[in-house]
Specification:
By secondary structure, the chain is α+β, with helices and mostly antiparallel strands. It contains five helices and four strands.
Length: 145
Amino acid sequence: MDLVHCIYCSASTSAELSRRELAVLLDKCRRNNAKYGVTGMLLYQHGSFFQVLEGRRRTVDMLFEKILADPLHTRVTKIILEPIAERAFGEWSMAYPRITFRELAEIPGLNDFFGRATSYLELGEGTAKTLLEAFKEGQWRVSLV
């Protein structure tokens, strides 16, 4: 199978999403992802998104194109698109950990970034991979919903 993950960040066109707006967005993501066989994770903090999409290359590419055209997103930045041997979030159509920047700063290897950053838009490839590994290895998985 041509399994890939796409890791991207973006800014919300709304200054700050309410809990209700975020719940509606997650429900939509989960339904679409389940329909297309895509799994992943979404982080949202202070108007910025960090998302991991896992699935077949064509499907992930198609969903990423939809995200690029979605009026909810601006400054969409693809950080990583690469083949993977297995899914890190196979149990979730779209996991959503309730985690703060302060909690993220406690993950070894991420404290420098999250100690000073105010947005996921500042993430680079190395930090994105460290963040992904922290969740893949089980750290903070108890907070996934």
